[in-house]
Amino acid sequence: MQELTKRLIPVLPLVFLVVAFGTAGYMIIEGWNFLDSLYMTVITLATVGYREVGTPSTAGMWFTIILIISGVGTMLYALSIGARVLLEGELREIFGRRRLEKKIKEIRDHYIICGYGRMGKIIARELKDKDVKFVVIEKNPVIHEHVKEDFLILEGDATLDESLKAAGMERAKGLISVLPSDAENLYVVLSAKGINPDLFIVARAGEEGSEQKLLRAGADRVISPYHTGGLKIAHTVLKPAVVDFIEFATKSGNIDLQMEEIPVPGGSGLAGLTLDQCGIGRELGIIIVAIKRASGDMSFNPTFRTIIEPGDTLIVLGEVSKLKILEEMAAAKK
């Protein structure tokens, strides 16, 4: 497609020159006015031969022969390239849409991001860095034209059930709604819960009071960027060292230190052992910041005698390479 477009662009000035040459020639040789000369040039180059302006003189006949020999080939070449650009563009759009639909039908246990604005872009980039499957729903066609990332983005209105179903809502693991207004996010939460009641939903809230409405509508978590941003600014002033440490520990792509959560499934080799018996801190140098129990209770700064139970989630801090080892240990069966 791009190659054909590059080939078409240099031909357009040449077509203009041929038309201008023919028009000027008829005006000079035959003495016709501009419109008649342009009309004669166009029907000659197009080879339609529809109602000639007048009978050309001998010089005009020779000029017409030269114009046909020099210009018709150029016109046909330009028309063929233009037709191929249009045809391939349409075919590419059709096949691209079908390919997208096929990929979405095959995807499971993914997340759906509603809205690809400033927040949506950051969320998509983070999920992609972590190799998490996701589909983006965005209704602004201009944004689609400028998206360069290689991920699934569906054009549609996320507040409509058909758009959510087209993104694989029934098979999705979770949904993130970051649309511009609270009303839109509320519609998305209500629609999503109606389609998939077990869905884990995170929604964005902008106005005060919207958080409780979104929670009542079915959102599991509600994030207010303005509230969170205000707290971070205040903490940066009051506790700059703490903020620097948290940013360092949670920064994506940081290979020195990373904070992660490690799930402990049933039958894991770690289940039933104390933190001391696991050797997580002693052998791997990993700090267990907290343990989230299956019931939802959070145990902060657990001691070495704390027992790891099936269904726990370990919130840990350590080097990326060591964290991968711990993930393998947690996933390994007894």
3D structure, described in words:
- This protein is an alpha/beta fold.
- The chain has helices at residues 2-29, 34-45, 58-106, 118-129, 141-146, 161-166, 182-195, 210-217, 225-238, 240-250, 275-278, 280-284, 320-331; strands at 111-114, 134-138, 152-155, 174-177, 200-204, 221-223, 258-263, 287-292, 298-300, 313-318.
- It has a six-stranded parallel beta sheet, sandwiched between helices.
- The model has no long low-confidence stretch (mean pLDDT 83).
Topology:
Elements: H1 2-29, H2 34-45, H3 58-106, E1 111-114, H4 118-129, E2 134-138, H5 141-146, E3 152-155, H6 161-166, E4 174-177, H7 182-195, E5 200-204, H8 210-217, E6 221-223, H9 225-238, H10 240-250, E7 258-263, H11 275-278, H12 280-284, E8 287-292, E9 298-300, E10 313-318, H13 320-331
Parallel strand pairs: 1-2, 1-4, 2-3, 4-5, 5-6
Antiparallel strand pairs: 7-10, 8-9, 8-10
CA(first)-CA(last) distance: 55 Å
Give the overall form. elongated
**Class derived from helix and strand content:** alpha/beta
Radius of gyration: 33 Å
Short overview:
The chain has 334 residues and is an alpha/beta fold. It is built from 13 helices and ten strands. The strands form two sheets. Strands 3-2-1-4-5-6 form a six-stranded parallel β-sheet, sandwiched between helices. The protein has a four-stranded antiparallel β-sheet with strand order 7-10-8-9.
Could you list some keywords that capture this structure?
13 helices, elongated, alpha/beta, 10 strands, 4-stranded antiparallel beta sheet, 334 residues
